[in-house]
Design brief:
Layout: E1 11-18, E2 22-29, E3 32-35, H1 44-49, H2 53-59, E4 63-67, E5 82-84, E6 91-96, H3 100-112, H4 119-130, H5 142-153, H6 159-165, E7 170-175, E8 186-189, E9 196-197, E10 200-206, E11 214-220, E12 222-223, H7 224-229, H8 234-238, E13 244-252, H9 259-263, E14 266-272, E15 278-284, H10 292-299, E16 310-313, E17 338-343, E18 347-355, H11 366-375
Parallel strand pairs: 6-16, 8-18
Antiparallel strand pairs: 1-2, 1-5, 1-13, 2-3, 3-4, 6-7, 9-12, 10-11, 10-16, 11-13, 14-15, 14-17, 17-18
Helix pairs in contact: 3-4, 3-6
Amino acid sequence: MRLSDEELKGLWLGRVWRPGIGPSVVTLRDGVAVDITSKTAPTVRDVLELEDPAAHVRDASGESLGTASDISGLTDAKDSLHWLAPCDLQAVKACGVTFAQSMVERVIEEKAAGDPSKADAIRKRVTEIIGDSLQSLVAGSEKAAEVKAELIRVGIWSQYLEVGIGPDAEVFSKAQPLSSVGTGAEIGLHPVSTWNNPEPEIVLAVNSRGEVPGVTLGNDVNLRDIEGRSALLLPMAKDNNASCAIGPMIRLFDETYSLDDARAAVLDLTVEGEDGYVLAGRSLMSEISRDPLDLVKHVVGLHHQYPDGFMLFLGTLFAPIEDRDHPGQGFTHKIGDRVTIASDGLGRLENTVRLSTDCPQWTFGLADLMRNLAGRNLL
């Protein structure tokens, strides 16, 4: 894990796997990882549920494990110290179609029925009709309703536009608790997918009260062909072995970093192929169509409770359309791609693309975690 001098001043919360011990809650102090697992807060979930998570992490005593860079190896082996996703008992939820540009790409996927060869022609037609009309729209507003009526009139209305500019946000289940991978891990594609891309996103850490104590980075791997065939295939497109990367750590809000900083964050994405191919892109949180706290309200409230809290992906502006191999085919991943998502103040999330069937299988579940913590006298 690499951090700038400014980021080293921040307040960090994460998880590592300790050989012979198991998953442990850690923070960073002057670049050194410190194990702060305790009976008071044996999980990240427990830390976030405290009245003042920042104060707990700042004051907690613990054991030094070495510098952050000492535990950033590319491995998931149980006999080595490595990063885990910085969440444990939380549900992992994700918002879709929260940026105008990526919303148009979802419409194109739908109209192309998952066939990348049809995407370019459909993109040109949709752009001619929509133009820049979506850029300044406030989702759920009167103006958005007027645009919706016009799009229906010209025959271009889509379920993606409905959640993009309508009153209700799209929120889906991205991954199961404990199934997300951390920085340095392999990230998986379903083996039937041939049209896919990374999605660099801000991820909110939300507790059971709907409060947001901090944020981190995430890669909501997108299988464009599967979702494009049918929106009912979203679970197959989104929730697969190693298909969700979160990290490197949660940055807790304090005087050095706030939710407003996250609202203004710029996420830089780089894909480096083993064939020398390089793709660079970015996502600007300033262009999101719904405020992060508004999205939280769509998830938790009297209509739905999350006693262990949840991690919430906020969506992305990034939607790659440049051709990688063949004209008109656009971008898709190749095995071995190195994906880096970085943002000032939040560090870097780095993963290598494999097939989900080739990534280390997810075998350490909630029962294993409970037995492990009980065996360490932490419960």
